[in-house]
Amino acid sequence: MSDSGFSASGLPASLAGLAFAKGHGTGNDFVLIADPDGERVVTAAEVAALCDRHRGIGADGLIRAVRSERLPEGRALLQSEPGAEWFMDYYNSDGSLSEMCGNGVRVFVHFLLAEGLARLEEGETLIIGTRAGIKTVTVADKGYAVDMGPWEFIHPDHAAAKAMDAVVNADGLEVPRPGLSVSMGNPHTVVALAELSELAATNLFTAPSVQPEPENGTNVEFVVPADPLVVDGVGLLTMRVHERGVGETLSCGTGACAAAVATRFWAGRDAPNEWAVTVPGGVLGVRFLTAEDGREHVELSGPAALVARGTLL
């Protein structure tokens, strides 16, 4: 360790000796650290250094596994859901805090199981705390299914009246397009495109312009509905996404949910409740269901994998 504030690896010296894992869900990748007792608070600078794809481990975000009782947000959740032992402390790759991440929840649970910090057998449910509230996880075919909770329009009056509430522009689009803003606990603005070639030509290296933009910014999904839209009762979409604080990612779980919400709304009353959303990193399943609270929830399903473990120099 040098006196310059950086270790021999070039990372901040404060990170030396930190044990980590690397995982992904359909290509949406994360650095994961276990900190059960909340002793290792990470700074925005440390997160950004770890997630740097050239000088760090490289990831779309960082997830810290900490017991809910060790965080103010977690303790608040425990008052209504005592079973939420674990809290997913999630950061975007630029170090900013985020409410949660749908792919990240699955990878987080996979990490907890691999670390021996939790158990989840087929038919059982694991309750996870996030800044977007409680998420329940079950074992699914080739991965995990997460009840993402209820969805809602960010601007419900505009959505009901016009089926859109924003104007979105991005490099590669010939003209700005209408968008519909959906909250999945975090904000999304969904834009429908007509052709896969148009989707491929859209440049998401820089953040699209969204007017008006939701208060805390927004993730932007560009989607192309399949033709035919429904095959064997399942709606089919292809999607790319620009995530706030990250950039374009290979996948976004909450974005896939928002894309299905918006497309089902546009398609009308006969639209299906099950969707397969193809993203650059694979395929995610989205299902609409009525929960015990009487509200319509969205369930996200897909794979999760750990690919590496290590200790920072």
Automatic annotation (TrEMBL):
The active site is at C101, C252. Homodimer. Belongs to the diaminopimelate epimerase family. It is an enzyme of class 5 (isomerase). Substrate binds at N28, N92, G102, N103, N186, N219, E243, R244, G253, T254. Pathway: Amino-acid biosynthesis; L-lysine biosynthesis via DAP pathway; DL-2,6-diaminopimelate from LL-2,6-diaminopimelate: step 1/1. It catalyses: (2S,6S)-2,6-diaminopimelate = meso-2,6-diaminopimelate. It comes from the Bacteria. Pfam families: DAP_epimerase. Keywords: Amino-acid biosynthesis, Cytoplasm, Isomerase, Lysine biosynthesis. It comes from Arthrobacter citreus. Catalyzes the stereoinversion of LL-2,6-diaminopimelate (L,L-DAP) to meso-diaminopimelate (meso-DAP), a precursor of L-lysine and an essential component of the bacterial peptidoglycan. The keyword Amino-acid biosynthesis applies. HAMAP family: DAP_epimerase. It is found in: Cytoplasm. One of its GO terms (molecular function) is diaminopimelate epimerase activity. This is Diaminopimelate epimerase. The record marks H188, E243 as: Could be important to modulate the pK values of the two catalytic cysteine residues. Its EC number is 5.1.1.7.
